[in-house]
Sequence to fold (66 residues):
Amino acid sequence: MEIQAAQAQQSGIAGGASDRPPLNTGWDNSLAGRTKKFGDMLKHVLPPMPNETAELPQFFDTVEKL
Fold:
């Protein structure tokens, strides 16, 4: 543990300000988080997909226009 503390202190990680900004490893910055956020936004923009197959061409035309 002392060796790890010494290595961290030598590299400037522990105990003091660093020149680099802190890494944001939260959910919003991950690929999965951004994909989920984008999908949730699309839910509020796109109309619901119809159950009838005859209405699908009109649905895709509407989506393409949006």
Notes: The mean pLDDT is 81.
